[in-house]
């Protein structure tokens, strides 16, 4: 069957009307999620984005539990929550647990639920994780798997333990993963980090579908560079070429990242990005993922289609330009005969 030009035009107009109508409906009639009075648990909550998010949720009237390994930092974080208390009935707690296993995560959940009559949190924000950049050739099996554990493992097992408790207790809550813009693209230096962040997206995509059976919502955020103590630590070991590629990236403070994550959760967005460049990478990599604003995503996708190949070529040129220096590095390390 041959479709005539008028029929093609009519089909295009119909599709555009559907997209615009859907976008307007989402903007005007979607009910926003309100954290007030809800118990929110944040892993990686002792500093950086996790702590900023905890403080923001406390300001919105939520009950907040922060979980991390470092007890002194947790105690200091708890003081920060108390300073923004909105209601004397708000419950703020800090728990020192390692959450990169189901056992540790389940123990943290149990402890966090005790002040709430054993009920598990209604919202889980997964901010735990770390980056240790380096060249792939420098890795061992142990260091590579350690990187996966610091990224995917730091969030997946808490999500698993929480899912089981939410289902068991009938809690129709939220699970919010924090991936990275390096879960949408990557470049030299992030071989132990980006794979786990891509995997977090894959897990979130799967759980978004599966957990609909239980009324549990899933979100995944893709922040870019965060100006936090973690960034200072990773820059100490980051390859020179990676630092060079990133030299024009000014980064964002944890408070801005936290505000972007919460804004996306409140609006019900599945993929959450916080700035223009994040929106471009998200829109071009979205595939079949739900889009909160299809009209804007068409624009972002078009910009990405045109601009991102030039960006990638510039990154590749910098990597190739580093080849001679890297060869000397490999000689020093004994990788070359």
From TrEMBL:
Gene Ontology molecular function terms on file: 3-dehydrosphinganine reductase activity
Keyword Transmembrane helix: yes
E.C. numbers: 1.1.1.102
Pathway: Lipid metabolism; sphingolipid metabolism; Sphingolipid metabolism
Database matches in PANTHER family: 3-KETODIHYDROSPHINGOSINE REDUCTASE
Entry protein name: 3-dehydrosphinganine reductase
GO biological process: 3-keto-sphinganine metabolic process; sphingolipid biosynthetic process
Lineage of origin: Eukaryota, Fungi, Dikarya, Basidiomycota, Agaricomycotina
Enzyme class: oxidoreductase
One Pfam match: adh_short
Gene Ontology CC annotations of this record: endoplasmic reticulum membrane
Keywords: Endoplasmic reticulum, Lipid metabolism, Membrane, NADP, Oxidoreductase, Sphingolipid metabolism, Transmembrane, Transmembrane helix
Reaction it catalyzes: sphinganine + NADP(+) = 3-oxosphinganine + NADPH + H(+)
Ranges that cross the membrane: 6-28, 175-193
Subcellular location: Endoplasmic reticulum
Primary subcellular site in the record, as a coarse category: endoplasmic reticulum
Domain of life: Eukaryota
InterPro entries: KDSR-like (IPR045022), NAD(P)-bd_dom_sf (IPR036291), SDR_fam (IPR002347)
